[in-house]
Write a structure and sequence with these properties.
single chain; alpha+beta; Beta-Lactamase; 5 domains; 21 helices; 24 strands; 28% strand
Length: 630
């Protein structure tokens, strides 16, 4: 057998001197801390030479900058040395200032460092010397300082813009997100809506202005937010409840996309002016049919009018396209023939009641589109009066099919949640009642207690998922960042899950060393979720395989099961909130929240996640997280 090759002292010396990482070997002779050796990278980083360093005190050759009165760098360095010596473990100082002398002058160069002090032990376990390894982070720290100064300047500018916004003579509002939550609104727009600032701010605009809901404004806002194309509305009728009275006002408005600093469109800016007095004056002088037609044709929904008796006398172009019929055909035969037979009697009864009482007409029903598909609509009509007499009805039909589907999905979720939360509670109650009735049994109570605790853990997991979703929705999910070992985390997570399952063997095939800066608890939550899902959805499987490796600056983790697999049409939806492949069957436990929470955690850590699956053969869930460069 050939002897193992040996590295000579000269080789070790060459490795030390030529290492790209800065290193200084320091004696533990406090308070002097004599420099024993130094490598070339350290000399280059500190603008020094070997002769002036080796054999001298580290604080003698690197004295404090007399103009820096706040950094306390000497005290911090001594503290780090002592911590490393006493604990016999490496100690790191992050982003601290320690200026270095400029050779040949009395001046100093401002520098910031992140430094590790690593103790080297002798055979008896005593600290022999310290390896001092500083990394120059000056540019990073100064960049952060510049960003902070820029943020303050931006904040000052925002205050000035807010002042201008609130003093503008026209109504202006900013509505954020898909629900168009009122992020900012000025007094003129509050007055136009007939609401106080407190009633509007922080609420979805259509939750407050309920009369305006379903009149086509949602679709216009959606189009502006999705396309970035502004919308200009002139003399548009807006139904409002002001001072307890339903009325139609007329407004000129512009919807502009609201863009964040990164260019992302997050909402809509509305600029509106009420022109009700001008419109009403015109209508009293003449019934401007042409102007009305212009307004109705600009609305992306069905608009119609009828006379006082209820006979249809106008439909806009959108209505004609929807049914694939001409205006003449629709006016002649009416649109009743397109209403679903099951909804027709109820709809016509409501319409007859509105014609009799003069009250607002509003009803939901299904209508047959030209592609022969029935879709849900909200129909709403308001009476137009002259001298307190109804002269016509202005109506709209709004397609609410997608809204209905969302409501159905919400109802399904409530049903699932009720079922999932009720089941463990019922079981837990039964176990405890049986335990109460068997005070003398010796073996049965322990089984009951075990089963009770199992149901409690199941209930606790459901509640934790619901709470996490609530935090995500409210933007209150907190993350506590620290540097930790990913391979240790994998081992701990696998061990925790293995303890509570006997049906599967969790096999760690590969688990490479990697340090990651993130929220240890949340990342562990993701791994455990992947593991428990793999067990849940492979009831006939016997093992789950885990791999963790470093690739191209990322830590990549995979969890493979040999279960039911996932069809391709479902794979992209698994990380959506409340989504379950088996929504109707309820075959598996859970609310469809775990992967949604996991995706939010990974995105907040700049991570990625994906699935590889073949139906009936199993699935592999992956996620990757970027590692910081050393």
């Amino acid at each position: 057998m050939q002897p193992s090759p040996q590295i000579s002292k000269e080789d070790y010396r060459s490795i030390f001197c030529n290492s790209p990482a800065t290193k200084l070997i320091i004696d533990t002779d406090a308070p002097v801390y004599t420099i024993l050796d130094v490598n070339d990278a350290y000399l280059f980083a500190t603008n020094s030479d070997r002769e002036s360093l080796v054999g001298n005190s580290v604080f003698g050759v690197f004295p404090p900058n007399p103009t820096d009165m706040v950094s306390k760098n000497i005290e911090r360095t001594i503290f780090s040395f002592n911590e490393a010596i006493q604990s016999k473990m490496p100690h790191t100082m992050y982003n601290y200032r320690y200026d270095i002398p400029i050779r040949g002058t009395d001046e100093f160069e401002e520098r910031y460092w992140t430094t590790s002090n690593t103790p080297v032990l002798d055979d008896e376990g005593n600290v022999k010397f310290l390896i001092h390894s500083p990394v120059n982070v000056t540019e990073t720290v100064k960049l952060a300082q510049r960003e902070q100064e820029g943020a303050q300047a931006l904040k000052d500018q925002q205050k000035q813009l807010h002042s201008v916004f609130m003093q503008a003579p026209v109504g202006i509002g900013i509505f954020k997100g898909a629900d168009y939550v009122v992020d900012l609104i000025n007094p003129p727009l509050c007055e136009l809506y007939g609401r106080t600032f407190k009633e509007l701010i922080g609420k979805p605009i259509f939750d407050v202005l309920t009369s305006a809901r379903g009149q086509g404004f949602e679709q216009i806002l959606d189009n502006v937010r999705s396309t970035g194309v502004p919308f200009v509305g002139r003399a548009i009728p807006l139904p409002l409840n002001r001072k307890g009275k339903e009325e139609i006002i007329y407004v000129n408005f512009v919807y502009e996309p609201f863009k964040e600093v990164d260019g992302r469109i997050s909402g809509v800016i509305a600029v509106a002016t009420e022109i009700t007095d001008q419109i009403e004056s015109k209508l009293k002088l003449q019934e401007s049919e042409e102007q009305f037609r212009f307004m109705s044709e600009s609305m992306p929904q069905q608009v119609w009018t009828s006379d006082a008796s209820g006979k249809l006398n106008y439909v806009n172009e959108w209505t004609q396209k929807y049914f694939g019929r001409t205006s003449e055909d629709l006016l002649e035969a009416g649109i009743e023939r397109f209403i679903h037979p099951d909804d027709l009697n109820r709809c016509m009864s409501k319409w007859a009641e509105a014609l009799t009482t003069g009250e607002i007409f509003q009803v939901e029903f299904r209508m047959l589109r030209q592609d022969q598909q029935y879709r849900w609509h909200l129909s709403r009509a308001l009476p137009f009066k002259a001298n307190d007499t109804i002269v016509k009805w202005l109506g709209t039909n709004t397609d609410i099919e997608e809204h209905k589907k969302i409501e159905q999905k919400k109802d399904e979720f409530i049903s699932i949640a009720s079922h999932e939360l009720k089941t463990p509670l019922t079981s837990l109650k039964a176990y405890l009642q049986l335990l109460e009735r068997s005070p003398t049994a010796t073996s049965i109570p322990s089984n009951f207690i075990k089963n009770s605790l199992s149901q409690m853990r199941r209930l606790e997991k459901l509640v934790e998922d619901l709470l996490d979703v609530s935090k995500i929705s409210g933007g209150k999910m907190a993350y506590n960042l620290s540097v930790f070992s990913m391979n240790d985390l994998i081992v701990d997570a696998v061990g925790s899950v293995q303890q509570i399952t006997s049906s599967h063997e969790l096999i760690v095939e590969r688990n490479e060393q990697a340090m990651f800066n993130g929220d240890h608890y949340r990342i562990e939550q993701v791994v455990i979720n992947f593991l428990t899902n793999a067990i849940k959805y492979s009831p006939q499987g016997k093992k789950v395989i885990i791999n963790s490796q470093v690739a191209e600056g990322n830590i990549v983790v995979s969890v493979q099961d040999f279960g039911i697999g996932i069809a391709k049409e479902h794979q992209q939806k698994l990380f959506e909130r409340f989504y379950r492949v088996d929504n109707t069957a309820m075959k598996y436990d859970g609310l469809g929240l775990g992967l949604y929470v996991a995706s939010e955690i990974l995105q907040r850590h700049n991570g990625k996640f994906w699935i590889e699956s073949e139906q009936y053969k199993g699935s592999t869930f992956f996620f990757s997280l970027p590692l910081q460069e050393n």
